[in-house]
Amino acid sequence: MLDAGIEPNAFTLSALIKACSATNGLRLGKSLRGAVVRCGFGGNEVISAALIDMHGRNGESSASRQLFDEMPEPDSVCCTSMISALTRSDLYLEALCMFNLMHRKFGFMPDCFTFGSALTALGNLERLKQGREIHALAATGGFVADVFVGSSLVDMYAKCGVLEDSRRVLDGMPLKNSVSWCALLGGYCRKGKFGVVVNVFRGIDKDLYSFGTVLRACAIWPLRSWGRREGVKPDNISFIEVLFACSHSGLVGEGRRCFVSICNDYGMKPEIEHYSCMVDLLGRAGEIEEAEGLIMESEFGSDPMLWTALLGACASATSPGVAERIAKKVIRLKPDCHQSYVHLANVYKSVGRWQESHEIWKQMKERGVKKLPGMSWIGRTRSSSNPSIYALTFFV
């Protein structure tokens, strides 16, 4: 088009930016942003909304906010794109503030996408009261029948722990999809109602998304026999889900059988992610030497990722010799990993080998390996200068 001497118009640039959003082409999208300015379309609201959405989909919510703030009079589409961008970046409080701003300052009525993003934010913040208010507002506007809004409501109630309301909304939806069902299944999983998950799953159309969700529950059930009864063949991702669930549920025996079945029963080759899950499972169970043997027998024996994962489990290892051996292995494979130096120094200190502990710290300093500072979540009280951060008022 450019080679033919044809200048792009607003529709062309908007379509190209949307294509960049869909393909994660942030670098090209930024180049197009420069073209927008050069062509004189900087104030075009359709293009601005597309740019806000593009940056939001690529995790650059601050760039989205800058674009939004530069607009003299943003329209409802730009507001919705901004709310969606904030939600995707897990900035849920900011997304809710934008939701309020959209109605109170600009006077726009939310659409189905706006309601969906706001409900997603409320669900993740577990704000049931405000979620009910948004539900009422969506019902007043006639948006509850929309599958996107309905699924967001199911998810919001499920994350707030009100499974009866979540199921009631789902049953009232004229059109349901896998996202709708998985939102409910996820809620039952969080409540530990694994039997209900399986029963619900049997009655719905199965896809990889719903299958992956139900596998979290099936870590508590006889996995292989259940999968065979259902006639569903798991893939590599499915096995990662199961092994992860076994690890966090303490099901060591079931995890071992599941790992062996990848090759023996399904003819698939275990990948490094499967080995990583098994190392984590065995490490949590204190089976350090078994995990070490598993790594050494695999084709990934020289990959530092697996040894680093095992090193974390050595914190509670009863054998200092094993912990020393694994820490030295990590240092050889990944010399810039500070955890290995710290752990090895602590191992030496715990058995009274003070000089060797000092040598490890000295070696770490000489190699320029920095110990990352520890971090923790600290609850904050409401700010008197900006009380709106913790006191969001919703309208009905």
TrEMBL record:
NCBIfam families in alphabetical order: PPR
Gene Ontology molecular function: any one: RNA binding
Cited PANTHER family: EMB2261, PENTATRICOPEPTIDE REPEAT-CONTAINING PROTEIN
InterPro entries the UniProt entry points to: E_motif (IPR046848), PPR_At4g14850-like_plant (IPR046960), PPR_rpt (IPR002885), TPR-like_helical_dom_sf (IPR011990)
Protein name: Pentatricopeptide repeat-containing protein
Organism, scientific name: Salvia splendens (Scarlet sage)
A Pfam family reported for this protein in Swiss-Prot or TrEMBL: E_motif
Protein keywords: Repeat
Top-level division of the source organism's lineage: Eukaryota
Any one Gene Ontology BP term: plant organ development
Residue ranges of PPR repeats: 337-371
